[in-house]
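Let us practice reading a record.
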Amino acid sequence: MYKLKKTPSGLNLLTVPMAGAKTTAILVMVATGSKHETRKTSGLSHFLEHMFFKGTAKRPNALILSSELDKLGGEYNAFTSKEYTGYWIKTAANQIKPAIEVVADMLLNSKFDAEEIKRESGVIVEEVNMYLDNPIMRLEDVFEELLYGDTPAGWDTIGTKKNILSFKRKDFVDYFKSQYRAESTFVCLAGKLPADSEKLLASTFKAYAKGKAKKKVVTKEYQSKPAVKIEFKKTDQAHLSLGVRTMPFGAKETVALKVIATILGGSMSSRLFSQLRERNGLCYYVRSGNEGYSDTGYLATKAGVPVDKIEKAIGIIIAEYKRIAKEKISDSELEKIKQFISGRIMLSLESPDDIAGWYANQLVINHQQPKKLKLVTPEDFLHEIKKISANDIQRVAQKIFDPKKLNLAIIGPYTDPKKFEKLLK
């Protein structure tokens, strides 16, 4: 069972022992991301994440730091999203103490060297190019631009090339001081834990700055008619994301949304996989999923389809959205979906880094919500999955699949959104 504790400085410590584990993971999650930025600082959260790997006073350059991390024999990485940034290391249990010390050194003592910033800007520009060249990776950004427009929620997390090339050392220092604060940071340790876990974390991170991070910009939503956004690109395959607005993370409909997304496109026997791929041969990949932020959410289906058959694919997806709202799911299909979700959750949470992520994700998003929610254990979630009924599925489907609130993002060789708007009507 997890244990959550605050240090005198306000730093949040979470420990999750796992019986039989031979490895341990540390994950530090900070409640800051691209939703906390302005146009001028857009991309800084992500760039700063890179800079924590470029050297500290004790480990003065990237090679020395990465060599020490490699010497631990584990895995490590970092990530930035709209609402949080995370840093993690997973090692054999006997290496976790030096791993904790390294990640603490990175977050407390990074130099943010001006020359390294200049050099790393080129790396991140190439990361931008990689996303732009890969429609599957780019599609989610286009869809969120459609939903949230010219707001922090609609901007690309990675930022613009112009911003990336213009950031100075002072920008990093100022942002770090305003956002990396104890009350908005969650240090999670999962797996085979040292006997003195809490004391170890508290002492290692004791210099972490007190206070709260600057709040993110609250996303305001309004939609009265279907919307389309096209990003023109000469491609042999059209990539589309068709979806609707749903509810924020932790809403009472969360479990039903998970089940609905899985019914539609969460497995090889899902309705849209069967219709788009198996019966019509229109795609190689198709998947549906629900995304929940602290203040918004959406459910969308993504697929790559023939350029000249995109209208047919859109029609099939809309038909399945209408069907799940109109017809109750059968007992046998619902039971299959429940077993599928339960099994996947159990498989995904066998590793300490996955368990740390399960809890840290809830903590850091919950921190940014006005109403604090209870932490949900995997066992709690599995219990809720079992309780879900066909009536629950239909009720939530009818609530979200409003024809006036359909949203379609496309990457492909098209220029006229009007013909697609007609399809959505």
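A brief commentary: The chain has two domains: 3-204, 227-424.
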